[in-house]
Specification:
single chain; alpha/beta; five-stranded mixed beta sheet; 39% helix
């Protein structure tokens, strides 16, 4: 058996080949025995037959045979040809064979793993590769691949984040400053669309090469994914003003490196980059906040037209703060249409404009995402909502059984969010079982599963969990009835709207969610109900808890309290 193909970028056997003796198969075993006792110190000898076949003679197994069970081995085998004791039909490799291919050919025999015979381009044997050497090389290659981006050859995201974490953690013992530059190419998509992905990949490799040429040996360049790169460097402590100048100069040096044309690429296949820079002199337990702090100025650089550098501020462990002075809450009731009772209210974040009008704070929420501060924003909403509920109760105002607060998809990945949520609830004085956390399906199944231990902590403390946007991506359906402790699902507006229009797929989806919820004793809420047709459709499917403009728009506090009082009167009339 012979293997002779080479995969691009693979490590081959060339540097691992050990030369060894090659003898004809007719050579007497006594000569081999004498040579092993003297001049030969290798682990194997190669044996050749007249037809060109290659055999393998392992030193340990041969000497054992020559010794014999009772010491008569040499008298029995001394005159026999070595071909009689050699192993034939073993895999044969070339110096150009890759270590991955070679590892698949190692044979496990009663003597253990055998050496692999190596032949030259003419098929003549001249050496062997020992299994222990091969397996060490394979382990080294596997580790290298995990730490290296296969397309560009720079550090992988995992390797980069590991190094970044080590550097920021080391600031606790060694004073200094860690600077991160976060880069995003301005034109990769147009290059892919115009020239194809092959040239797009060439652009990424070219960018990696030019960036690598612009940094010091002790800096680390990584590709985080797609067209995103990052560089981390460490500098000595200095005044904040000086550090900001150093950080900007660092980012500018990287930007300029990409302005130098790569003559192997068409002019229109080039791309500049938007760069965000952030720095810290404070030891952090997690490196993500520092990278997030660099992501915000990167976004600002891209919005400003690209091909420029923007600086973020000094970051601390909690990430950068998002302004909340102009934020407020509105509340949208969830109504049980059978009784008219309000079963819950959802706290909705709003921003107050200069004209005093409230609107959805899309930009502020994106700012929190870019700054890595979604959890801080979620905690602000939770604290405010719980404080409102506690204040209404103290004033003996009728309040619904629970208040629902959203947990942003990014916050699900934050360590310790369950502890922070419970601390905020307890600080308000509201009972924990009066709070329900809404998890967005957009968080992704994997992130929700990883967060399960923290979510279980919340439910054991009495906090409810609702899965929001159910049906928007279909991915979270399999979480129903799983270890994820959900007690309520909220059907997405898109499904409700389709049911109201009589669309068959949305009708089947609504029926499926309802059946699964009944199967696992989970409450169902239809959200975004805006028309009587939609209301009728969800009722036909057995859903009676409804949230949407048809029953109530989001309300400010004064309007909410009036609505709750009216609904209390209405529900009492229905019951009597």
């Amino acid at each position: 058996m012979e293997v002779d193909c080479v995969k691009s970028g693979e490590i081959t056997l060339a540097a691992m080949v050990e030369r060894c003796s090659v003898v004809p198969s007719a050579t007497p075993c006594s000569e081999i025995d004498e040579a092993f006792g003297g001049e030969w110190d290798g682990s194997s000898v190669l044996v050749t037959d007249r037809d060109g076949a290659v055999g393998l003679l392992g030193r340990a197994s041969f000497l054992s045979k020559m010794a014999g069970r009772y010491g008569y081995g040499r008298s029995l085998w001394g005159r026999q040809p070595v071909g009689a004791v050699a192993t034939w039909g073993v895999p044969v490799v070339h110096p150009s064979t890759t270590i991955v291919q070679a590892a698949a050919l190692i044979v496990d025999s009663v003597e253990g793993y055998r050496d692999l015979p190596v032949v030259d381009d003419e098929g003549k044997p001249f050496g062997i590769v020992r299994p222990v050497v091969l397996m060490r090389a394979l382990a080294d290659q596997t580790a290298l691949r995990a730490a290296t981006d296969q397309l560009t050859g720079v550090a992988s995201r995992a390797r980069f984040m590991e190094e970044l974490a080590l550097r920021v953690a080391a600031l606790d013992e060694t004073p200094g400053v860690v600077i991160v530059a976060f880069l995003d190419l301005d034109r990769l998509k147009p290059v892919n669309d115009l020239f194809g992905h092959t040239l797009g990949d060439a652009l990424l490799r070219s960018v990696a090469g030019r960036l690598a040429g612009a940094i010091r040996q002790k800096d680390l360049l990584g590709r985080l994914g797609g067209d995103e790169f990052a560089v981390v460097t460490s500098v000595k402590p200095a005044s904040e003003a000086h550090l900001q100048a150093v950080a900007l100069a660092f980012g500018e040096k990287l930007r300029i490196s990409l302005t130098h044309r790569d003559k192997t690429l068409p002019t229109r296949a080039e791309s500049r980059a938007s760069i965000g820079v952030a720095l810290t002199s404070v030891a952090l337990m997690d490196a993500e906040p520092l990278l997030s702090a660099a992501a915000e100025p990167l976004y600002a650089a891209k919005v400003a037209g690209g091909d420029r550098v923007r600086l973020g501020g000094l970051t601390a462990a909690q990430g950068r703060a998002v302004p909340t002075e102009d934020l407020s809450l509105s509340y949208q009731p969830v109504v049980d249409v059978r009784t008219g009772r309000v079963t819950a209210i959802e706290a909705l974040l709003r921003i107050r404009g200069d004209d005093g009008l409230l609107s959805f704070p899309a930009e502020r929420m994106q700012q929190a995402v870019r700054a890595g501060s979604t959890l801080a924003l979620d905690l602000w909403v939770l604290s405010r909502a719980c404080a409102d509920m506690a204040r209404w109760e103290a004033a003996q105002v009728h309040t619904p059984p629970r208040v629902n607060v959203n947990l942003a998809p990014q916050s699900v990945c934050e360590p310790g969010f369950a502890r922070d949520f419970l601390t905020a609830i307890d600080a308000s004085g509201l009972a924990r079982d009066r709070v329900c956390i809404e998890l967005s399906e957009y968080a992704g199944v994997d992130d929700l599963v990883r967060a399960t231990p923290q979510l279980v902590t919340l439910t054991k403390a009495g906090v409810g969990l609702a899965l929001d946007d159910m049906g928007a991506t279909l991915g979270a359906l399999r979480l129903l009835g799983s270890v994820l402790p959900i007690d309520c699902v909220k059907v997405d507006r898109s499904i409700v709207e389709g049911c109201g229009l009589g669309l068959a797929f949305d009708g089947e989806m609504l029926a499926l969610v309802t059946r699964l919820a009944e199967r696992f004793s989970i409450d169902v809420v239809a959200e975004g109900v805006e028309t009587r047709q939609e209301d009728a459709a969800v009722r036909r499917n057995g859903i009676h808890q409804i949230q949407g403009f048809l029953h109530s728009v989001p309300l400010v506090e004064s309007d909410l309290l009036v609505f709750l009082a009216d609904r209390l009167v209405t529900s009492e009339k229905v019951l009597h």
